[in-house]
From TrEMBL:
One of its GO terms (molecular function) is ATP binding. This is Branched-chain amino acid ABC transporter ATP-binding protein/permease. Keywords: ATP-binding, Cell membrane, Membrane, Nucleotide-binding, Transmembrane, Transmembrane helix. The chain crosses the membrane at residues 27-44, 56-73, 79-98, 105-125, 151-169, 200-220, 232-260, 281-300. It is found in: Cell membrane. InterPro entries: AAA+_ATPase, ABC_transp_permease, ABC_transporter-like_ATP-bd, ABC_transporter-like_CS, BCA_ABC_TP_C, LivM-like, P-loop_NTPase. CDD domains: ABC_Mj1267_LivG_branched, TM_PBP1_LivM_like. It comes from the Bacteria. It is a multi-pass membrane protein.
């Protein structure tokens, strides 16, 4: 693709002088326009995963701002078109603030409502927009033989800038943050990504090229009709182009525009009369539905998948070289409490999950938190990590704290390296940690192509990128094989010897007993025992509430 790019660019640039037929020039101008709109939208809808149905509003805002200012100042609309981009950006920022908490369908509806609202404003604010009569712009003054050229090159240049912007974003930490939000917003926030700021910026960035394009397009038409400028058909068309080509890819929106625009022009010729708009809406909506159902990732990812069809196996797990580090013999001494939880109460509706839970984790220790299913261990993690708020009680936690999840939550569509970089932009540190967990060879593989055990290791490395003082591990051995459990234990010990404190929730008792310095046992929402592994496995309360008869028999423990 990269090698073909200069050739393609040269060919496209040669069209106006060599293909004077204005039909084809106009077709390409409209393809560029649609590609810019789909490319801008892609930053929000493709990278960030927030589907907007209102993005064509930025085209109208850009066109009106450009036209009104050019008329008022008596200058060429080409000069005021960048201000169309500014107006679109400001509007997007305002809307972004309003929709800060909106997700999924609510976001779609709010963006659609914005489009409808602006259409009404454009029709009714006659003193500014000339209302439903439309706004007339200056007619181009250059020779009719070159009539389309300036628009053609202006939009081609803007398209190049849009693709370049999209490329730069995808390679930046900001872009990794956007993709992380798309894959798992809650987890992204947990890794320290400022998700509201990322979304706001993505919204603004996605609107600006469309606003500038609106200015150029308005001049191309020389007449702004509010119904055509704020039509839902335009929004559906641009979303269709992005999804068909491949949302979240660099070239997908361009490929989509190349396919959708000729189709759109064909429907323009086929449907005439007063209901034409409604029929086109039905048709585009239907095609959009088909694309979502049958080609959900779009054409480009489908082609890439077919080309890459290497053996469909996941990378085979390399045996890690890190042998578990032997436990230091003799008593270990620890610092003061790094985490202190006192009298935590938490309920969900009528269900009391935590009922006066208190315990601490000493600096430098590996502390276990065990208990029967449903005793509230994960809820404690969620409270300590700040995902939930306690009904009452206090938590004194260190500032640098990170957690893993019971079921791994890597960003599946980011590479292993990008998963690590999402929380902190430190490429050397990321590679160092991948070496440490034995997965450096997998740095550029997509996270979801790894085995579950490998994903658990990557999630550990991911949280270590934050240089945490305290790491909360939620079932690090859950669902992985005994060799990998041993590897995981070895890594935890190694990290602990270099100063990291761990709080581990785990059902694998041999692991807990061999790894932990101190163990707290929860049952019915509060702590029923604390002590060294030796003390815990002899405690009759713990044997009754959790470890049970099997454990007693197996280990010959007497009550
Ligand atoms: N967000 C929630 N809304 C309603 N109930 C919840 C919520 N989160 C947890 N619970 C309930 O709270 C109880 C404790 O759940 P929690 O996941 O903390 O237990 P756990 O000790 O971690 O269990 P396990 O060992 O099975 O992971 C369960 O009955 C669970 O169904």
């Amino acid at each position: 693709m990269r090698k073909l790019l200069p050739l393609g660019a040269l060919l496209v640039a040669c069209v106006p002088p060599f293909f004077v037929d204005s039909y084809y020039q106009n077709m390409l101008i409209m393809v560029f326009l649609l590609a810019i709109m789909a490319g801008g939208w892609n930053v929000m809808g493709g990278y960030t995963g927030y589907i907007s149905l209102g993005h064509s509003a930025f085209l109208g805002v850009g066109a009106y701002t450009t036209g009104i200012l050019a008329n008022a100042w008596g200058v060429s609309p080409f000069l005021t078109a960048p201000l169309g981009g500014v107006a679109a950006g400001v509007l997007a920022a305002l809307l972004g603030l309003v929709t800060a908490r909106a997700r999924g369908t609510v976001f779609i509806i709010v963006t659609f409502a914005l489009l409808a609202l602006l259409g009404i404003v454009a029709v009714n604010w006659s003193s500014l927009t000339n209302g439903s009569h439309g706004l007339v712009l200056a007619i181009p003054t250059w020779d009719a033989a070159y009539a389309n050229w300036p628009f053609y090159y202006a939009l081609l240049g803007l398209l190049a800038l849009t693709v370049l912007m999209s490329w730069a974003i995808r390679r930046s930490r900001f872009g990794i943050g956007l993709l992380a939000i798309r894959d798992d917003e809650e987890k992204a926030a947990g890794l320290g990504i400022n998700t509201p700021r990322h979304k706001l910026l993505a919204f603004v960035v996605s609107s600006v090229p469309i606003g500038v394009a609106g200015g150029i397009y308005g001049y191309y038409l020389s007449f702004l009709d509010p119904r055509a400028m704020f039509t839902i058909v335009a929004s559906i068309t641009l979303v269709l182009a992005a999804l068909l080509g491949g949302a979240g890819t660099l070239w997908g929106p361009v490929i989509g525009a190349l396919l959708v625009e000729p189709f759109s022009q064909w429907t323009n010729q086929q449907f005439t009369g007063p209901d034409a708009g409604a029929w086109r809406l039905v048709l585009f909506g239907g095609v959009l539905l088909l694309v979502v159902l049958f080609l959900p990732h779009g054409i480009l990812p489908e082609i890439q998948k077919r080309l890459k069809r290497t053996p469909a196996t996941a990378p085979v797990g390399k045996r890690l070289d890190h042998l578990p580090v032997a436990r230091p013999s003799g008593p270990r001494t620890f610092g003061p409490a790094l985490l202190e939880v006192t009298g935590l109460h938490k309920g969900f509706g009528g269900l009391r999950v935590l009922d006066g839970c208190s315990f601490d984790v000493k600096r430098g220790s590996i502390t276990g938190l065990i208990g029967p299913n449903g005793s509230g261990k994960t809820t404690v993690f969620n409270l300590v990590h700040g995902l939930l708020r306690a009904d009452s009680g206090t938590i004194s936690r260190p500032p640098r704290l990170a957690r893993t999840y019971q079921l791994t939550r890597l960003f599946p569509r980011l590479t292993v390296r990008e998963n690590l970089l999402a929380g902190a932009r430190r490429p050397e540190k990321a590679m160092e940690l991948l070496e440490f967990i034995g997965l450096a060879d997998y740095a550029d593989k997509l996270a979801d192509s790894l085995s579950y055990g490998q994903q658990k290791l990557v999630e550990l490395a991911q949280v270590l990128m934050l240089d945490p003082d305290l790491v909360l591990l939620d079932e690090p051995a859950g669902g992985i094989n005994p060799t990998q459990i041993e590897q995981m234990a070895g890594l935890i010990r190694q990290l602990n010897s270099s100063g990291t404190t761990f709080l581990i929730v785990e059902h694998n008792m041999p692991l807990v007993l061999s790894l932990c310095d101190e163990v707290h046992v929860l049952a019915n929402g509060h702590r029923i025992a604390s002590g060294t592994p030796q003390e815990i496995q002899r405690d009759p309360l713990v044997l009754d509430a959790y470890l049970g008869a099997d454990f007693r028999e197996l280990h010959g423990t007497n009550s």
